[in-house]
């Protein structure tokens, strides 16, 4: 070879270049590996498969200094995406998303499987809803099930052939792109899923569990009865028809007890234990086992490597979980939540608790791992949390796990071009355990174009930013970011009594709000779905931590990066500054909202000095007025894609016009600054009720 020559070698083809082959120990060749080798200006990119060869080349293109003359040995056997928000879920029509570049990024990072199914149109189910203001229909607009693409003899006449073909064409294109990048196609859905009500008009005996959330839905929705053999035959036929289109479908990942799905008589189903008389004759294990076995048997007739993955988290009690584990057939497994963005100890505890039972039953589960801070930071995109991710992956290794599902998705470069979390993950899944400080320094220097001083500022900002996110007291899944969008916390006018707003004043933040009009969550953020979600003492804890640590630390980060950007004009400094500023503004809004609510509750319950409570409410609203001005400035001046927004259609999961919404909020709040606090709700004085999970109250 001569200087400038480039060779791509798959497997033993590398033996034609002994100087490169000698870099690979014999033992390594039995597993999955990648190599980038250089000698005298000649380059060899090699790996166990064409996908590995491509990844070696893509890795070198992205990080030439780090990847040159590098051998990677994979310690994680399967590396699949799960519930990718951007690829096929609620953010698939968000700004900055482009599917081909997204799949390319997934492959570059080292994943080998990706979910490919989505509704081709944003409002697929919404346009079929019975009531125009039924926001719950949006839950049915993502994670499409089999009946969005194919039919069976049972369902053929109940679904639009044109819509099915439209979705199927979109699926075919996604599969083609996945294969182009060496990614195995997967399928994700919620099952047993709500179906077209017309089916039950024809076949009333097939009605199964009610699966809608009564606190969010205007229309009852039901799944097919999976205890009925005819329904199981329907699923087998539907999956077979799908796999005729995608014969190499590698995995079928289904969730239950969430977003319009559920097993009969499960204790934590949205509407409580329910199902058919036939289902009542079966155990939870028999129901789950028969359903899963049906899918496994149908899929493996076409692809022997096909696997069914049941995502199993908080949805089942210990007895149900034991029965399900014992009933799982060969070819089926679980995915467990292992680590959220802010390190909820309960998620690691869940895996540790059930892993011995899984392995005793011959099941090696997947660990569901949130890569970044996507859930907790919503709607802010790409907030770095390197130490948190490293710690979570440490749990993965401590438990001896070898199968990973990257939960909640990957950000592609248009959305987050300097994604520290994903670069770290790429190192970890290749079996590397980099010294974090070294990796941060390398990435910072590269992204700062070799400017050592700017790189040092960037590393310091990352470390401080991580400190801030770790110090933030996450109360539950709703406080972690969902409330900011689905609850419209960011744009709802912060006033002493929401009921005193005019209809026009309430319209902006109510247009895509999930809770129904009667739900007290609209009047008091302590509640959600008619059940107490937060306690006043929890609010006080968030306020104290935000004031003492979180916001001061983030303010320092934003200032450091802002000063460095003014001096060096490096895009990465501006990008990271804007993301940290965005999450800081979110925390300020959370803090002010909680401050108004807890002071309002104190006032209504006549706890302490009432005048002092009025003063606290007024101060928090004034603080939010200033914060809202900062929101508007940040959104109008930033060139960074830091705030997730829709392309054309607003949903409960994504904003369309946040600047206009903030401007309206800014207009409304001063008009109501001195309103009497309220409203008084009976629920404030009733005994404590805490929502443990949907359908379960303590």
Description of the molecule:
Helices cover 44% and strands 12% of the residues. It has 698 residues and is α/β, with parallel strands linked by helices. Among the domains are: 68 residues, no CATH class; 234 residues, no CATH class. An 8-stranded parallel β-sheet has the order 5-14-13-12-11-10-7-6. The longest helix has 34 residues. The protein is globular and about 85 Å long. The relative contact order is 0.09.
What is the gist of this entry?
Helices cover 44% and strands 12% of the residues. The chain is of the alpha/beta class.
Strand order of the largest sheet: 5-14-13-12-11-10-7-6
Percentage of residues assigned to helices = 40-55%
> Measured on Cα atoms, how large is the radius of gyration?
26 Å
Instruction: Give the strand tally.
Output: 18
SS summary, helix count: 23
Low-confidence stretches: 691-698
- Return the structural class: alpha/beta
Overall spatial form: globular
Overall pLDDT: 91
N/C terminus separation: 71 Å
Strand content: 5-15%
Largest sheet: 8 strands, parallel
């Amino acid at each position: 070879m001569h200087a400038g020559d480039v060779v791509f070698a798959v497997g033993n083809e590398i033996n034609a270049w002994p100087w490169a082959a000698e870099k690979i120990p014999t033992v390594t060749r039995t597993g999955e590996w990648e190599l980038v080798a250089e000698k005298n200006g000649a380059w060899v990119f090699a790996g166990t498969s064409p996908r590995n060869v491509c990844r070696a080349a893509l890795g070198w293109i992205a990080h030439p200094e780090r990847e040159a003359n590098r051998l990677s040995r994979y310690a994680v056997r399967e590396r699949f995406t799960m519930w990718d928000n951007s690829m096929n879920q609620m953010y698939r029509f968000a700004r900055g998303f482009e599917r081909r570049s997204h799949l390319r990024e997934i492959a570059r990072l080292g994943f080998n499987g990706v979910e490919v199914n989505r509704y081709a149109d944003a409002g697929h189910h919404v346009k079929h809803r019975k009531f125009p203001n039924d926001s719950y229909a949006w839950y049915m607009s993502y994670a499409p099930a089999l009946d969005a693409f194919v039919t069976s003899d049972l369902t053929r006449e109940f679904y639009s052939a044109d819509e099915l073909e439209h979705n199927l064409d979109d699926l075919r294109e996604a599969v083609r792109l996945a294969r182009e990048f060496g990614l195995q196609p997967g399928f994700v859905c919620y099952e047993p899923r709500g179906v077209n009500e017309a089916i039950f008009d024809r076949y009333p005996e097939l009605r199964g569990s009610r699966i809608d959330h009564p606190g969010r839905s205007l229309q009852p929705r039901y799944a097919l009865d999976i205890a009925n053999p005819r329904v199981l035959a329907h699923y087998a036929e539907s999956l077979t028809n799908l796999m005729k289109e995608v014969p190499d479908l590698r995995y079928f990942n289904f969730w239950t007890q969430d977003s319009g799905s559920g097993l009969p008589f499960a204790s934590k189903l949205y509407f409580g234990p329910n199902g058919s008389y036939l289902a009542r004759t079966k155990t939870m294990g028999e129901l789950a086992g028969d359903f899963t076995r049906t899918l496994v048997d149908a899929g493996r007739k076409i692809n022997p490597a096909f696997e069914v993955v049941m995502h199993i988290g908080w949805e089942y009690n210990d007895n149900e979980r034991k029965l399900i584990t014992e009933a799982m057939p060969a070819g089926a497994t679980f995915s467990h939540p292992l680590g959220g963005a802010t390190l909820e100890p309960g998620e690691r505890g869940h895996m540790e608790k059930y892993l011995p039972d899984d392995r005793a039953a011959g099941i090696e589960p997947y660990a569901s791992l949130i890569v970044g801070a996507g859930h907790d930071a919503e709607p802010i995109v790409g907030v770095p949390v390197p130490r948190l991710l490293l710690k979570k992956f440490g749990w993965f290794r401590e438990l001896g796990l070898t199968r990973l599902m990257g939960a909640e998705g990957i950000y592609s470069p248009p959305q987050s071009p300097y994604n520290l979390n994903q670069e770290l993950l790429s190192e970890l899944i290749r079996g590397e355990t980099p010294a974090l400080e070294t990796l941060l320094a390398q990435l910072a220097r590269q992204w700062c174009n070799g400017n050592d001083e700017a790189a040092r500022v960037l590393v310091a900002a990352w470390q401080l930013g991580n400190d801030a996110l770790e110090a933030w007291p996450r109360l539950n899944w709703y406080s972690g970011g969902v409330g900011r969008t689905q609850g419209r916390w960011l744009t709802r006018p912060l006033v002493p009594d929401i009921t005193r707003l005019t209809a026009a004043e309430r319209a902006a933040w109510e247009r895509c709000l999930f809770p129904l009009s009667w739900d007290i969550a609209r009047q008091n953020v302590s509640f959600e779905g008619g059940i107490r979600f937060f306690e006043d003492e929890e609010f006080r804890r968030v306020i104290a931590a935000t004031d003492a640590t979180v916001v001061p630390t983030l303010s320092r980060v934003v200032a450091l990066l802002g000063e460095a950007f003014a001096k060096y004009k490096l895009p990465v400094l501006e990008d990271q500054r804007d993301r940290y500023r965005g999450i800081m503004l979110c925390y300020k809004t959370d803090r002010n909202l909680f401050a108004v609510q807890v002071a309002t509750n104190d006032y209504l319950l006549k706890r302490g000095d009432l005048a002092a409570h009025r003063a606290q409410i007024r101060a928090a609203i004034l603080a939010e007025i200033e914060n809202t001005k900062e929101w508007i400035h940040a959104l109008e001046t930033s060139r960074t894609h830091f705030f997730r927004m829709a392309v054309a259609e607003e949903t409960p999961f994504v904003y369309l016009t946040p600047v206009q919404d903030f401007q309206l909020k800014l207009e409304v709040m001063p008009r109501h600054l001195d309103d009497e606090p309220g409203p008084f709700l009976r629920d404030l004085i009733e005994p404590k009720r805490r929502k443990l999970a949907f359908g379960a109250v303590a």
